[in-house]
Amino acid sequence: MIGSSRPVAGGPSPRSTVVRSAAQDRPGPALPTLDADRSDAAYRDWLKEAVRKVQADANRSADTHLLLFPLPEHWGIDLYLKDESTHPTGSLKHRLARSLFLYGLCNGWIRPDRPVIEASSGSTAVSEAYFAGLIGVPFIAVMPRTTSAEKCRLIEFHGGQCHFVDDSRTMYEESAALAARTGGHYMDQFTYAERATDWRGNNNIAESIYRQLERERYPEPAWIVATAGTGGTSATLARYVHYMQYDTRICVADPENSCFFEGWTTDSAEAVCESGSRIEGIGRPRMEPSFVPGAIDRMMKVPDAAAIATVRALEAALGRKAGGSTGTGLWGALKIVAEMVGQGRTGSVVTLLCDPGERYLDKYYSDDWLTAQALDIRPYAAALDTFLATGSWPEETAI
């Protein structure tokens, strides 16, 4: 694992070329007078009902749990996992999908009977299929052919369609082209994730974490560790921390085959990665517009084998299976806990349980898949066992 923190914050968020949807670029009708009225009563009635339904989903969804990961009491450190798998669609992306649908509806981009199209490796598509079904519009997910079969089943369960590409780097262009052909709206989570969420509060994930920690012995965490797919969650967490003037630091754990770590450490908006991430939902081949590097304090590069060893350790500790993104973040959080132990510091650390491991039984919980991917988790599993038993984190060269 590689870790890095920068003494000087980066500049503005890197902006790669954004492919806009047909709905956004399509010119409106010619206006015959300066007082033209483009309103339509039937559409406005539909829009009000669609927004009501999406907002009602938030009211029906109780807040997600904050789970305590067992650590030795004498360390004086509490480690929590924000369990986002309890959302109606089973993942952290439920929050994002709700925000993106409200954003698209209120901007006039999502229209009756026209499809919503998204480039997604799985969980966002599952959640967006749910909200599309809720308001009665078609949904098409453009995704890599290697996406887990269970995620594809869930998308179809919620009424969506799966449109596969062989190269994950072509998802953006294919989504935009599909929107143009169908007259639909390309949601483009990788551009709009950071702006669709109300980062100042309104029961976002950051505000929820701090509210749930109010009665804990360390209510203001020393660190929150996230992972990045769009970068929207880390942006929301970091902005909220700065806005509320907390001393919490934000760390982003990045998997193999992702360019975020390189782009952050080199301040390069042009960083790319030629291979797709094996950890579904996180890691990107380009610096996404929604990733806000200047807002976060630290990044770590986490080996995929370490992430998978960690989700298996999580199951042993809590009896819960989780996806690889959870393992990536939890490995980073445990590394920070080890640093705090070594420095004699007390406090709390928070990371995320992003989605359930039952979606990945044929991958991260399959020894055959590990063999096919040439991933050996044994050194990382041994490192975790040693750390949890002794508080000593093995030297980087040893694992």
Keywords, separated by commas or semicolons:
alpha/beta, seven-stranded mixed sheet, globular, 41% helix, Rossmann fold, four-stranded parallel sheet, 399 residues, single chain
Structure description:
This is L-cysteine desulfhydrase Cds1. It catalyses: L-cysteine + H2O = hydrogen sulfide + pyruvate + NH4(+) + H(+). Belongs to the cysteine synthase/cystathionine beta-synthase family. Cds1 subfamily. With 399 residues, the protein is α/β, with parallel strands linked by helices. The protein has a domain of 213 residues: Rossmann fold, CATH 3.40.50. Helices cover 41% and strands 14% of the residues. The chain contains 14 helices and 11 strands. Helix 7 runs parallel beside helix 9. The chain is globular, with a radius of gyration of 21 Å.
Q: How would you summarize the topology of this molecule?
A:
Layout: E1 2-5, H1 22-25, H2 41-60, E2 65-69, E3 77-83, H3 93-106, E4 116-119, H4 123-135, E5 139-144, H5 149-157, E6 161-165, H6 171-182, E7 185-186, H7 189-196, H8 205-212, E8 223-227, H9 232-244, E9 249-254, H10 260-266, E10 298-301, H11 304-318, H12 324-343, E11 347-353, H13 367-372, H14 378-390
Helix pairs in contact: 2-3, 3-4, 3-7, 4-5, 7-9, 11-12, 11-14
